[in-house]
Every structure is written in C-alpha cells, then in structure tokens.
Amino acid sequence: MPINNYYNLGKTGLKVSRLALGTMTFGKEWGWGNSREESQQIFNQYLDLGGNFIDTADMYTGGTSERYIGEFMKERKNREEIVLSTKFTFNTAEGHKINAGGNGRKNIKRSVEDSLRRLKTDYIDLYIMHCWDKVTPVEEVMRSLDDLVREGKILHAGLSNVPAWYASRAQSLAQHRGYEPICTFQLEYSLIQRAIENEYIDLGQITGAGIMAWSPLGGGLLSGKYKPGIEGQKDVEGRLKKITDDGGEVSSKDNERNWGIVKALHEVSHQIDQPMASTAINWVANQSNVGSVIIGATKMSQLESNMKALDFEIPLPLMEVLNKASDFDKVYPYTFFQSNIQQRIIKEAELADKPAHYHKQQRV
Ligand SMILES: NC(=O)c1ccc[n+]([C@@H]2O[C@H](COP(=O)([O-])OP(=O)(O)OC[C@H]3O[C@@H](n4cnc5c(N)ncnc54)[C@H](OP(=O)(O)O)[C@@H]3O)[C@@H](O)[C@H]2O)c1
Description:
By secondary structure, the protein is of the alpha/beta class. It has one domain (6-346): TIM Barrel (Alpha-Beta Barrel), CATH 3.20.20.100. The chain contains twelve helices and ten strands. The structure holds NADP nicotinamide-adenine-dinucleotide phosphate. The site of NADP nicotinamide-adenine-dinucleotide phosphate has 30 residues, from β10 and α10.
C-alpha cells in the first residue's frame, strides 16, 4: 500500500500518513543527527513522497528540531498541508527553572508557547505529553490539554511513555468530563520491543486511540547494518555506535533474543527480497491498532528506502517466523488469561464471534 494512503488517527477526523517522519535527528547537538541542510532535504523529500505527518518534541536537539521545522515550513509555505506533532514534559527552559519541567499546568502553558514560537505557527495539530512525571495528577493534565484545544492552540492530544492505567484513567476522565480525548498513544514498538502488546493494543481499540510507534528499528539494530554472525559488533557506523561509545543504553539491546530476531529478520528479508529495515517497519505498520509508524533517517538513502516499506506484503508464514522469533515472556496477570479462560469461566463451548455485519466480539 503506497505511502499516500492516509489513516484517521484514532477516532479523530485527522488524516495522517501511515509513516510519520521522526525528526529527533534534525540538528547535530546529540552527536548523531543531521545538519540543517541535510535535515531540510529529508523533510522536503518525505513530503514530496507523499508523507504529511511530522513528529518532533520541544527537547529534541535542544529545540533545534522544532526550530528547523518552523523554518522549513515557512520556506515551503506549507503549514496547512502538514500534520504537526510535538511534545512537552522535559525542562527546556534556560536556567533550569523549577516549574519549567514536568506535566503541571504551568509548564504545559510555558512549553506550548515556546513550541509555537520555535515552530513559527499559531497551532499544533497534535500535542503529546512526552512522559509521565510521576507526580502531576492526570486530572490537571487532561484539563490543561482540553483548555489548549478550546483556545485553538492545539487540535488534538496524545500521551507517550505512560503506564496503561494512567492512559486508561485519562480516557475515562475525558469521556465523563467532556474533555478532548487522547487520540494517540506514542510508544516504543518494534520486533525487539513488543511489551505494549500486553495492554495498549486493546486499550487503544477500546478507547479510540491509535498507536504511533517509535523506534521501529530499535534505534538501528534492525536497520540491516547488523547481521547475524556479527553478534556484539558495535563498530558499525551510526547512532548505536555513538551511544555505545558514550556508555549509553544500547548494551541492553545486545542480548541473545535480539540477535535471534536480527537473524530471523535477515532470513525473511532475503526471502522476500526486501531490505531488513523495510521488513521491520512493515511488520510494525501491520500490527493491530497501529495508526502510524515514526520512521527515522539520518541519510537520504535511508529515508527513500524506508518510505517504500509499505509497498509489499509479508506472506503470512513469514510473518509467523518473525512473530515467533520476537515472542516475549508474558508476565502476570496476562499469563492468567492465556489458556482458554472463557471455557474455565462459563464452562461451555467457546463464545462465537458475531456475524460479519456486527462488530467483532471483543474478548478482553
Ligand atoms: N516519544 C518518544 O519517547 C520517542 C522516543 C524515541 C523516538 N521517538 C520518535 O520516533 C522517531 C524515530 O525513532 P528512531 O530514530 O529511534 O527510529 P528507528 O527507526 O528505530 O531508528 C532510526 C535510525 O536507524 C538508522 N536507520 C534508519 N533507516 C535505516 C536504513 N534504511 N538503513 C540503515 N540504517 C537506518 C538511522 O541511524 P544511524 O544511521 O545513525 O544508525 C536512523 O536514525 C524519532 O525521530 C522521534 O520522532 C519518540
């Protein structure tokens, strides 16, 4: 399916491309990003290829990512064509002011004004809480986001990196207090990170929020640079090398399960004659309730290749190979529901699905 097939994000009327452009790499401040010129080429090429969904955050590259996007939109005069998503939570104010971080109303107000200024726009299509701060009540966050919708500063709201109970509570508050509901959960999702399948797929379906999947290549591990047989190799150029050299978190990705996944991905990609990165992105995009996959690219060749990731289908038996290799240990209470729980509860034959013209029975 070509990139210029758009999906409605969650239950909104907002139409987004199934591949969003991640811009965490716009700017060199973090050591593995792109110059302004390279970033602009990637931005323009993504739009020329049919994408319309740009993801950034106030803290990416210290504000440079938002600044570049604002400038690029101005130069291209295309603000209206773009679905612009940005995030708040982290302290991006000069001088570490105490209320300039977190999800309190005061910081949300400061953050949105700063983002609007850097992005050179008067509204944000999708405003996402970047991370649970573990202290601010969800009531304060939801009311503050709803106020911003009413003020016209943001059109829709999302949550990223929050526990499912928190997201569920946010949606209940929205429903019962008449706030703008959350239309997307932006979460890490890839062949190497499938933990969100425990709760978020069902939660999103039930509450009308689509998943925006981040790091579909596990930050580069599934990009094709790493091949089976070179396990543990870290001298491949790119972000993972830089992070590893700096003593960062990549070591947690260097484990037997992940190398098994890289091996299976390599074999499947070879069989369907596709780049490993494309196969990995395609797998994520075709999981239940995924609204959009945020692709990252530090080179034009990577972008152009990744943008073709939806142009083919992975045959079912090969999907199974990937599913099996990337299977993960379920934790309690999900283990409790695994084996035929309905039969144990009602002691009758399994419930049947409703006829096709009804909605599918939800068994959660
Ligand atoms: N909400 C959140 O907390 C959160 C967190 C992380 C990311 N995000 C969003 O998600 C976006 C994507 O995340 P990500 O960059 O981590 O995604 P990713 O797809 O897991 O990794 C992308 C990186 O892999 C390498 N790569 C990509 N395509 C390749 C190809 N075809 N061949 C070889 N290497 C390739 C590039 O890095 P190198 O060339 O440097 O190796 C690229 O920067 C971000 O830009 C951001 O917008 C959100």
